[in-house]
Amino acid sequence: MVSLMKVKKEYWFLFFFLLCSFVSVQAQYVWKNPQEQDVPVIRGRAWQHDLQGSYDRLPSKAQEKVRKAVWDLSQQSAGLSVAFYSNSPEIKVKYVVKGNRGMVHMPVTGVSGVDLYATDKNGRSRWCAAKYVFGDTITYTYRGLTYEDSSNKGYEYELFLPLYNTVSFLEIGVREDAFFQFIPVSKEKPLVIYGTSIAQGACASRPGMAWGNIIHRELEHPVVNLGFSGNGKLEKEMFELLAEIDAQLYLIDCLPNMVGADTAVIADRVVEGVRILRARSNAPILLVEHSGYMNEYTSKSTEVSYRAANKQLHNAYDALIKDQIAGVYYLTKEDIGLSMDAMVEGVHPNDLGMQQYADSYIKKIKEVLKEKGGEIATTIPCKQQRDPYDWMARHEQVLALNSVSAPEIVMIGNSIIHYWAGEPFHSRQNGGKAWEKLFKGREVHNLGFGWDKTENVLWRIYHGELDGFRAKTVFLLIGTNNLPFNSDNEIIDGIVCVAKAIRERQPSAQLRILGILPRKEMEDRIRKINAELQNQLAEMSVTYIDLAPVLTKEKGRIDLSLFLDGLHPNEKGYERIADVLSAFL
Fold first, then answer.
1. Bridge partner list, 397
2. DSSP 468
């Protein structure tokens, strides 16, 4: 009897110890709900209000407008994501879904899973691996996360939500001593996809591998996914909803749901749909052919069905071009170019097919949006977060400022421009008096970002900072932050690439390119770069401005009395710069 009581006592002690340990572990996490934020943080939605469910893709008013099948599918979270900053070594995601976890041809991790990506301080994307448990509440646990620097903010993360399920509840947990901050939804215009199950994400192995999400990850434009499995029918009601969206580009990819009896109505529905969009929007429209079936070479009837649909789409395209409907583009099956092993069951892409699908889209999108870029680092657009200020927040400030006030003059550059003066305001202003004297009475926007390289400026230009207005004059000063990392030719190519991007978006502006400012112990190298840069810019309709003569002394050495640290001008240095620029306004 004593022995039995002793065993029971030890059992309850062990149970109490384990319970306390469990509570202790749980207490180490702070949980955040995206739905409980003061500003919208759920990406991928064209409508942030009038929503019935937590993660719906269509507004409540659409329930009376679209077919029930479309409405039901719109409650699945395909293409939605949540972004945040954190430096936590562990991140947990717990959530509840309403539908079946998986499908016979698509894994649970794609249907109902989440997917986390990190972006480091230099704009490089990194995938994160997790341990996951699919119970009544699904949990993903990311452990052993490491960071390249000691930044208090850590990395920018983006969590992609399930492709084929309805999320009713979701929270993100980080260590209680870690930094965490949601990133608000961008003001940038989105790419809008209207399509079928393939657009919704079938049959990606995980959310990040759906082709719409790949496009978003690689181009970093906001993407709205209105793919509806089996129900991308080119319907008037959907085009009317699409027309409400202030899109950067519409991608119409519905033909996989229009084979057979529906083929006969493709041309009429496409023409009507494009006209509905054009009545409200000047955004380019990309019409996409059926990508084909993997068994077309062993089944003639299969080949005939999709080719008939593609013929009808091309007839619609020809009619629109004949009627001089501007901004309509076309992507062929051959452009998409799926390989033999790119589908799961001959219809829906696997991860290989999704990547091939996305690659073809990205190539076309860059062409349509004039995002040519280049092959070397200085010409490949990317974000950065190398300085203590919030780089993305400043980008959003620029977009917001441009939307309410069209600038006459735009100053683009790095910290030398950023910390001069002007709007968007920053607490650090090294040359306020010179700025006010130079630009008094003019609407000037400061698009300088501390620590920017050429590739970072290129990203900002591609993401809307020069859109929606016509400037009289644009000044560009960039390149000094590339000096420790790139060759002279790479830096010159980067500056020229940025100049071309500015010219494409502000064709009527007077474009003034400033040579890289002299920098302590780098004067000779900079002089050489500037000389070659001037030669290359001579072929473009721009004005090159050399500021070195007013900032240097004998033998071209930097005049330290004009600088704070051998790189950034002081008030006197900015006065010298302003005196030169005044002749180019």
1. none
2. S
User: Please, which pLDDT band fits residue 440 given cuts at 50, 70 and 90?
Assistant: very high
Strands 81-86 and 131-134, sheet pairing: unpaired
Instruction: With both helix axes pointing from N to C terminus, report the angle between 351-368 and 211-219 in degrees, rounded to the nearest 10.
Output: 50
Enter the DSSP assignment of 201: T
The residues, any chain, with a CB within 8 Å of residue 187's CB and separated by 6 or more, are 396, 399, 400, 403, 464
Question: Across-strand partners of 141?
Answer: 92, 131
Helix axes 300-322, 266-280, angle to 10 degrees: 40
What is the rounded distance in angstroms from the CA atom of residue 417 to the CA atom of residue 420? 5
Q: Name beta bridge partners: 413.
A: 448, 477
In whole angstroms, what is the distance from residue 373 CA to residue 177 CA? 41
Give me the pLDDT at residue 25, please: 46
| 505 contact partners, CB below 8 Å, separation of at least 6 | 370, 461, 466, 467
Q: What is the mean pLDDT of residues 443-470?
A: 97
pLDDT tens digit sequence for 461-513 = 999 999 999 999 999 999 999 999 999 999 999 999 999 999 999 999 999 99
Helices (H), 28-162: 68-74, 108-111
Find out whether 206 and 159 touch, Cβ atoms under 8 Å.
no
Give 21: exposed, middle or buried? Use CB within 10 Å, 0-12, 13-18, 19+.
exposed
462 contacts 497 by C-beta, under 8 angstroms: no
Show Cβ contacts of residue 90 under 8 Å, excluding neighbours closer than 6 positions: 29, 141, 142, 143, 144, 145, 174, 175
Of 97, 113, 302, 69, residue with least CA distance to 201: 113
Q: What are phi and psi of 337, to 5 degrees?
A: 60, 50
Task: Look at 552 and 15; give whichever has higher pLDDT.
Answer: 552
Model confidence band, residue 2 (pLDDT cutoffs 50, 70, 90): very low
d(CA 346, CA 105): 11
Cα separation values, 265 from 121, 382, 384, Å? 50, 42, 48
C-alpha–C-alpha distance, residues 213 and 78, integer Å: 9
- Confidence (pLDDT) at 272: 98
* Dihedral sign of CA atoms 477, 481, 483, 485 in order: negative
pTM of the model: 0.93
Beta bridge partners of 116: 128, 159
Determine the pLDDT at residue 492: 98
Residue 297: band (very low, low, confident or very high) from pLDDT cuts 50, 70, 90? confident
Mean pLDDT computed over every residue of the chain: 94
Short-list 480, 490, 475, CA closest to 583: 475
DSSP SS3 for 227: strand
pLDDT tens digit sequence for 81-118 = 999 999 999 999 999 999 888 899 999 999 999 999 99
- CA distances 166 to 115, 141, 169, 386, 440, Å, are 16, 20, 9, 37, 55
Give φ, ψ of 460 to 5 degrees.
Answer: -65, -35
| Contacts of residue 421, Cβ cutoff 8 Å, sequence gap at least 6 | 429, 430, 431, 432, 434, 435, 436, 446
